[in-house]
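During the second half of the funding period, the structural biology subgroup turned its attention to how the target accommodates small molecules. The most pressing case was PMT, which had performed well in the primary screen but for which no bound structure existed. We therefore specified the complex as follows and requested a full 3D prediction, including the ligand pose.
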Amino acid sequence: FSEGVLQGKRVVITAGPTREAIDPVRYVSNHSSGKMGYALAIAARNAGASVELISGPVALPVPEGVKYTPVSSAVDMLEAAESSVDQQCDIFIAAAAVADYRPEQVPEQKIKKSQDKMVIELIKNPDIVASIAARKDKPFTVGFAAETQSVIAYAEGKLQKKNLDMIIANDVSDQRIGFNSEDNAVTVLWQGGRESFSLQSKSLLAGNIIDLITSRANYSKN
Ligand code: PMT
């Protein structure tokens, strides 16, 4: 692992799930544990980068030597990401499992049980990684694609549509990899190339991904 290769670079990483309030006591969320994003934050720090980790609610310890910004909803995460990238950002990695939709109306009081059936209307959340990648002076922007079918094709689509420099295709239909697992196996895609990583710990994989980003972004030491 190339120590010091990201010296002087600022890396911003989103991790974990977001929570979208239904009322003051309930929310919509997903099974992201934050393990992948936290492992990336540690690997980037070990490579010498100054790292900000913007995290949804998870049960992991905050990595040492990393700026930590806890958030809850997708809207909070967007705000934190925009202001962090405003400061300076060379590499932006979106490992968070951001809720695509949030309840449109959030009452101030707890919803009482009454009808047998209830409908909660959802509206689309802003796309954080797409918004960072749309900047004029965009950082090297890396996304994940968590898919349960046609994994590579959907990942390829997101690479183009979100204007990313790299996307990490994660088959989350396999229990051994993806949400809340210790290990992962992924295919990383970029314009005109790809590399697959076989089953390994998220921490080992994170180091390999940071190495790949470093060489694709031309930060490798000669
Ligand atoms: O946290 P773990 O338990 O370790 O699990 C890891 C993981 C499976 C969560 C991780 O490897 C992963 O795949 N993260 C992305 C999950 C996801 O939301 O994928 P997506 O295909 O829905 O989104 C595509 C990309 O857009 C992602 O980089 C996502 O962070 C980003 N996005 C999505 C929606 C949104 N509103 N804003 C975003 O920035």
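Two results from this model are relevant to the next phase. Residues 14, 32-36, 74, 94-98, 100, 125, 127-129, 143-146, 158, 170, 172, 178-180 surround PMT (CB under 6 Å). Residues 111 and 117 are 13 Å apart (CA to CA).
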